[in-house]
Amino acid sequence: MTTWATTPATAAPHPVSSDPVRGRTADTASWPRRATGVLLGVPTAALAALHLLLTGAALGPFLLWPRTRPYAYGSLLAGVRRLAALERARRRAFFGDRFPRHYRADDHRLLRYLAVRAGGGLVTGAVLALLGFGAVLVGLLVRGVLRGSLGGEELLTQVLLGGVLLFLAVQGLYSLAALDARTARACFGPSEAELLRRRVAELADSRAAVVRAVDAERRRIERDLHDGVQQRLVALAMLLGRARRGRERDQDPERTDALLRQAHREAREVLTELREVAWRAYPSALDTLGLEEALGGVAGRCAIPLRLRYEVDGPLPEPVRTAAYFVVSECVTNAAKHARASAVEVRLGRTGSLLTVRIEDDGAGGADPAGSGLTGLRGRLAALDGTLHVDSPAGGPTVITAELPCA
After folding, report:
1. Which residue, 60, 78, 177, 353, is most buried by CB atoms nearer than 10 A?
2. CA 11 to chain centre
3. Would you call the peptide bond into 397 cis, given omega within 30 degrees of 0 as the criterion?
4. Which stretch of DSSP H or E encloses residue 359?
5. Which residues are registered as beta bridge partners of 309?
6. Please, which residues have CB within 8 angstroms of residue 186's CB and are 6 or more apart in sequence?
7. Burial class of residue 363 in the structure, from the number of CB atoms within 10 Å of its CB (0-12 exposed, 13-18 middle, 19+ buried)
8. For 380-394, how does the pLDDT look when each residue is reduced to its tens digit (9 = 90+)?
9. DSSP notation for 62-98
């Protein structure tokens, strides 16, 4: 759907372009690539074992003597770092692992990883050798069946035994591959415990940000009611009081009628402003009509031309729907009030389980990502594991992109 809401001065919108991902992810690697990575892991593990054994044996006496220990240990670790970098490249090339770019493991963790990798890789090689030997035996078994030299009982025994051994070998390979992936994650990226600590810290920060955003919203509503609606109601009461006193004293009826007409206009303006405050607090259309119609209301009330592209199929979770509405409402209000924009374009699209909200205006730019409004939006999105990207160079245009997971 495309919606245009215009004021008397109409401006043409400009076209939009598209958009990024975040966090530690892994590309989906095909089975042939993974199998190649497992096979290549055997010689790299043999290299690691040789380095640890031969270099450790050669430097053993120097490692025991305190004066030469730092130099010998440094020589040992130089090779460990190179081999660990080789393993990291293997995991990235054949398994699609994406480790944090600036994360650097300490030397003790690298040494421990290489020792585990050497042992696991050599055991993987042994299992692969047994599988190869089993393939040769299968060939001999088929040859015996074709020649008729195998009886039924012997054939059944061989098939059962071979099936059990094949199952154990495949399970062993699966477990060794899982061990390889787990140790690589623990070495080249934050460990599971560290990730959990970070996650707890992120949740604590997002909760505090949501509390701050709610308090700021309450203060804004109170300010709108006090400085806007309340002042208008006071003026309305004064107008009605003057009209009542004029009628009681039989003063000029035309002046009394004029006061009543002015009071009626003031009452209508109070209702309009009260409706605006209620919409900014929470629009009832969001629950009754859905996000698309609620955003249509934002477009209708916008002081500048607003183009809305709603390209979302299916319903959205309620928290995501609410957050998307307030992102659009806040950004459109900022563009109209502070950016001196002549047009705004809003686009909502859903790709898989990710909702992307993109707001672009042609204003003066220079929006502060650390400002109170954008910080409140960022906290609201962070509570839902969402992100907010702000691109606002001086001179414009300003592009704000919010990403919200819908799962």
Report:
1. 177
2. 34
3. yes
4. strand 354-361
5. 2, 347
6. 109, 113, 192
7. buried
8. 788 788 888 888 888
9. HHHSTTTHHHHHHHHHHHHHHHHHHHHHHHHHHH-B-
Which residue in 272, 256, 266, 264 sits closest to 233, CA to CA?
Answer: 266
Token readout for 244 is 């009542």
Alpha carbons 187 and 90: distance in angstroms, whole number? 14
pLDDT in tens, 166-194: 888 889 889 998 999 888 888 887 666 67
DSSP H or E stretch at residue 261: helix 253-281
Type of residue numbered 349? G
Stated pTM of the model = 0.47
Res 291 pLDDT > 70: yes
With CA atoms as reference, report the closest residue to 295 among 344, 238, 234: 344
Which residue is it, tokens 């909502």? 348
Give 98's Cβ-side CA count (13 Å radius): 9
Close Cβ partners of 218 (under 8 Å, ≥ 6 residues apart): none
Cα separation, 122 vs 41, whole angstroms: 9
Whole-angstrom Cα distance, residue 88 to residue 93?
A: 9
Q: Distances in Å between the alpha carbon of 110 and those of 106, 143, 175, 195, 235? A: 6, 49, 21, 19, 75
User: Do the Cβ atoms of 281 and 266 come closer than 8 Å?
Assistant: no
Decide: helix, strand or coil at residue 308.
strand
List Cβ neighbours of 289 (8 Å cut-off, separation of 6 or more): none
H or E stretch covering 358:
strand 354-361
Residue in 407, 399, 326, 333 with CA at minimum distance from that of residue 369: 399
Do 358 and 400 form a contact (C-beta atoms < 8 A)? Answer: yes
Is the model more confident about 400 or about 371? 400
What's the gap between Cα 185 and its chain centre? 20
User: 137, 145 in Cβ contact below 8 A?
Assistant: no
Looking only at the bridges linking them, the beta strands covering 354-361 and 387-391 are: unpaired
With contact defined as beta carbons under 8 Å apart, do 399 and 391 qualify?
yes
Residue from 14, 37, 8 nearest 309 by CA = 14
Minimal CA–CA distance to 120: which of 57, 67, 44, 55?
44
Q: What count of residues does the chain have?
A: 407
